[in-house]
Amino acid sequence: LCYMQQMAPEAAAEAAAVMGTGSGVKPPSGMYPCLDKVFMYSGIFSLAALNVMIATSSQAKLTVPQRNSMIAADAFLTPVKEIFQFLEDTVTVKITYAMAQNDSEAVNAVLIVGVVGGAIMGAIAALGTTALAYWPAAIAVLLAPGADRHQTDFPGCGLVPSAETMVLEARSYWVLRSWTWPFAFIALVLTGLILGSKELGLWGVALIASQATLGVIWFFGPKVGLPLDLSLLGWAYFLSAVVFVGALSLCVVCNRNLVRQYRLRLCPQRPTLGGSSIIQVAGASVRRAHDVGKDAIKHGLIAMVLDLCVQLCITIGIYAAGELGLPQLYQLSAMQAAMPTYGTSWALGVGYAIRLVGAGLVGGQQYFAFGMFVHSMTACGLAFAVLTVGTVIPWRRAVAFGYGSQACQFASDTNCLPIYAGMFGEGDSITNTLQASFGVFAPAAGSYSLFMITKAGLYACFDFAFMAWWSVAALFVVFLPGILVASQVYKTAAALYVAMYLPMLFLAIVFYIKLLVNLRRMNAGQPGPWKERARAMTAPNVPPFGARNQTWSNVGVSQPPREYSSMQPDGSTALLATELSSARI
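The structure assignment produced for this chain is given below.
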């Protein structure tokens, strides 16, 4: 907003009105703006801090086999989660879009579809993975990739456990992480509702409660030996998800102004008319929910293709490392543990802001402000990517030793020294070592973070089909040749890591180019997925303009397509100023 104030003052005022950041603006709960910001920033800080602390401490506390089982479990569970989360990814954006149009019927329809569908899909997915956890042959492959080969390669090393032992220690983590899904899916929908209503402070309070639960259980919970630590981590994630969805639910149910403003309900509206009017209104309400749900499922399936292709790149890379050897697998584990610190923690926040705020701007047809916002956030993401490279490359040896400290236990047994040498090298040779692998970590982290930001921009544009097609192309054209060369020719952890994250760099470039094209078409009033969504989600009885005299925000103002041909030297437009004035912003 500060950047936009210099380049286009009217666009900054427009964005501030949509995001509810204007002077003296209060959310429906009536929370004071100062407290609203304090809780919001505290929640964001707690989320980023706990992501970093959990990843770092689990890498330091868990044994090498336990940590390898943990990333193997996450590598398999994440794609499964993405498959069943297809509905929630689009519902989160759609509910913000509907709120920006002040369409209470669409808000309720999306809310019902998201909450009920999320609970059902999460439970189905959790039941399936729980069944896998008690299928001995399958779970041994999934939680202990290459374990039999590792024991064969290092027969005298007592620090390399059998597959059965690794499964016994990691099964509870697998099951508990699976059963976080129903709560996580519902929380995504409620988060979209709360942030779409500008209740940033309440969202921050719920986030603080969730992250406090996670941290307290993991760092101060009961520990009876190292084997129980992985189980404890599973309980920490599970209870954190329960607390988060419970806190979000309370924030919605107890917020009477929010409920009254959007006439929120979790069942079809009961009409008070008489005779055939009851049937007509009830039928229209059911058809409305059916149409919105059908639209959400359709675009959710398309969005699922993108997330599934991206996660498959990581999953295949991790299991390929397990087949290469224990040192290669642990090198990938160490780099994945460093990823939140140097990339994903801040990229998640920036990407989520674009997805929610951007959807609100697009829903209000405030395309110029949306373009300025996306450009600012992308520039911020690029700066963070450069910072990641600058802070890792010069000190990659120290960073590698810090994240690989648990592997030093292999130096305590002469039969295990080959494993130690495979991780840190012997003599002056550092080829195929953790130090060498961290040389490619920083560009990979930067690429993944930029991908998350540009993907969020296209999410706000509802350009799901474009992302799906190009993600499939990246999987087959970029990743598959890369992983074959890395696993069959180079056979190093660094090569595998490059193959895993090269598709993200490719997609980040393609998505940003598409974003530029979309922004140009928006400002020119040309058709696109964002206009198709407006037609799909606008109820027949909704007036073209939102309610006037809103006391907390003017996000409900729906504006006609704009022409930005009369640009002034200071970046403002006379037409935009007139529209903002007429809309009482």
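Interim note for the steering committee: The chain has 23 helices and no strands. The longest helix spans residues 276-324.
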